[in-house]
């Protein structure tokens, strides 16, 4: 990895407040790094598990909303009142459900064979897909949200419990070491199970360095401390010895905005 010295990187100040205990201006400078081989981009300063827990314990609740409003006036009216609600969930499921149906059928994976599904980091479990009709539904999350009806909230993970489908949606851009982070959910994926990853696309890896050096733009991180391209997301799962079933870029409707995202579907490689 190559460290880009004092890269101008938009870094929301409440992240700094909670994670490095320093009060800074709304746009701050932080050391960052990019892998020139796979294009993975991240901040350089590691966030501990306890710092992340502090940062997300009140995720989307009143104190969280007020932190955003403090540094981004108008956030609650334009975004906060919509994000994470039933309208967003309905919009996202309208694209996620048919994507999973088609992608799984393309690989001869029968939807009725999935007995248990898990949303890892899925808040209240509202965006668990509706296509696995025979599956028990679970969500694992560090926030204080209660699960919606029909979903069981897990506050800790029994190492013996396995799932046939695990989704991790818009989480990997928030964790410092995604390679290490994936170890836990993958330990709970059944042999032959399916992993679904979804992350936003926020930069073009081919011209990132040139734009930064010439100061053509600042990268707006907010809570996102990693940025992905198709190349870097694929490299991540290949490092975990997974087989990629599908990888594509699609514009996803979140109800309060639309944006390009990466969808990746993977499974464990067959045991020899």
UniProtKB/TrEMBL annotation:
GO biological processes: methylation
Alphabetical keyword list: Methyltransferase, Transferase
Transmembrane segments: none
GO MF entries: methyltransferase activity
Signal peptide segment: none
Name the UniProt record assigns to this protein: Methyltransferase domain-containing protein
Naturally occurring in which organism (per UniProt): Cyanobium gracile UHCC 0281
């Amino acid at each position: 990895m190559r460290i880009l010295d004092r890269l101008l990187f938009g870094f929301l100040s409440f992240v700094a407040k909670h994670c490095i205990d320093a009060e800074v201006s709304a746009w701050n400078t932080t050391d960052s790094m990019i892998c020139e081989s796979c294009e993975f981009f991240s901040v350089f300063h590691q966030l501990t598990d306890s710092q992340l827990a502090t940062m997300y314990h009140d995720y989307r609740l009143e104190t969280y909303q007020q932190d955003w409003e403090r540094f981004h006036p108008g956030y609650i009216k334009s975004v906060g009142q919509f994000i994470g609600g039933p309208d967003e969930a309905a919009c996202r499921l309208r694209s996620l459900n048919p994507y999973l149906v088609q992608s799984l059928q393309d690989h001869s994976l029968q939807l009725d064979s999935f007995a248990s599904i898990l949303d890892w980091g899925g808040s209240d479990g509202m965006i668990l897909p509706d296509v696995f009709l025979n599956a028990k539904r679970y969500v694992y999350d560090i926030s204080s949200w209660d699960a919606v009806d029909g979903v069981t909230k897990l506050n800790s993970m029994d190492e013996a419990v396995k799932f046939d489908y695990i989704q991790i949606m818009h989480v990997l851009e928030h964790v410092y070491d995604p390679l290490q982070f994936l170890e836990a959910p993958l330990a709970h994926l059944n042999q032959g199970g399916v992993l679904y990853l979804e992350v936003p696309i926020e930069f073009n890896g081919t011209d990132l360095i040139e734009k930064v050096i010439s100061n053509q733009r600042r990268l707006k991180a907010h809570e996102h401390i990693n940025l992905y391209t198709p190349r870097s997301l694929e490299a991540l799962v290949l490092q975990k010895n997974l087989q990629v079933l599908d990888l594509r870029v699609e514009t996803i409707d979140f109800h309060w905005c639309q944006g390009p995202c990466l969808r990746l579907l993977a499974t464990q490689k067959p045991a020899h």
